[in-house]
Prior knowledge:
It is a single chain. By secondary structure, this protein is mainly beta. It has one domain. It is built from 2 helices and 6 strands. The strands form 2 sheets. A 4-stranded antiparallel β-sheet has the order 2-1-6-3. Strands 4-5 form a two-stranded antiparallel sheet. A hairpin with a 6-residue loop joins strand 4 and strand 5 (64-65). The radius of gyration is 12 Å and the shape is globular.
Amino acid sequence: MKKYEVHSVCDACGDVHPTRHHVLLEDGPDQTQSVEEFWEGKDLPADVKNVLANPFQCPTTKSFIKQEDTEQVYLVPLSYT
Length: 81
């Protein structure tokens, strides 16, 4: 399985930040890819839906952001487990 860090576009400052959430995928992308693009036309796995439901803190503004737009949430490959 491959481990991915979830990064998201921040609505508070406009930058892309790591959300401190991770997912393990059997057949995930080899390069950074948006959640929308990777699962286009398919239901999202429960663990990915859970990540989208949880806010992350912007390191710049310190506000909490909940990004639900799957085009602005990215899977960033980390390592194989």
